[in-house]
Design goal:
Structural class: alpha+beta
Order of helices and strands: HEHEEH
Strand order of the largest sheet: 1-2-3
Helix content: 25-40%
Radius of gyration: 24 Å
Low-confidence stretches: none
Number of domains: 2
Shape: elongated
CATH topology of the largest domain: CBS-domain
Strand content: 5-15%
Length: about 110
């Protein structure tokens, strides 16, 4: 007696193969480090520049958001929408409008941990 082309045994093997492929993929991701995917030489803006200057930098760079730094530390991100919403002739700085609580990942972390 011949078995069904899509019999239970074949489906079980297929599912096991998919699970095995999934496990290999997970293992591969765990071996990859954040530094392997991070962008180097990122354009940033200083927290003490004016909103007006930050808008100018965004227009010149064609970016829609930028990391905000104080010294060498990332203190937040600012978007074009936030800059335009807070544009004021009295001269707010970027630090006046950025959101706190920016989450970062260490370059040595695995993608799985990040």
């Amino acid at each position: 007696m011949m078995g069904n082309w899509f019999g239970k045994e074949d489906r079980g093997k297929t599912k096991r193969k998919k699970n095995l492929n999934y496990m290999f993929a997970i293992n591969s991701i765990m071996a990859v480090k954040v530094k392997d995917y991070m962008t180097k030489d990122v354009l940033t803006v200083s927290s003490d520049i004016s909103v007006r200057d930050a808008i100018s930098i965004m227009l010149d760079s064609a970016h829609h958001s930028l990391p905000v730094v104080k010294g060498k530390k990332i203190v937040g991100f600012v978007t074009a929408k936030e800059l335009l919403r807070h544009y004021h002739p009295l001269g707010l700085t970027v630090s006046d409008i950025i959101r706190n609580g920016t989450i970062t990942a260490d370059p040595g972390m695995s993608l799985d941990d990040a």
